[in-house]
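input
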Amino acid sequence: MPEPSLYRAAFLAAAKHCDEVVARLGDAHGEAARAEWNQRRFWFWALERVVEHVAGEQFWPECGRRNFARAGQRPKLQQVMDELARLRQRLGSESLPAFREKEALVARIAELANQLLE
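output
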């Protein structure tokens, strides 16, 4: 069985999202659903895959062998992952955070994500 690929998994996740939107709203919405996934959902989806990799739950070759299961070896990384989870939850649970607040949350999430991979 070949190693899983982030690229292939992203393609499949985007296709699944598109299929779900088309099933609900019709064929005319397929292209918009694909664009929406690429613009709004891809980076958070990719971040979840990085967390899986660093936590040792799923190996993604694009994240590097050296980074696999690093969280168990470095307690600080577990703290980073916990903060990421809190920020993602906060970003998702607040219906309409102020633009500056949302921008600050996303910037902090990006900062933390960069700490996960060497």
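quick obs: The chain is about 70% helix and 0% strand.
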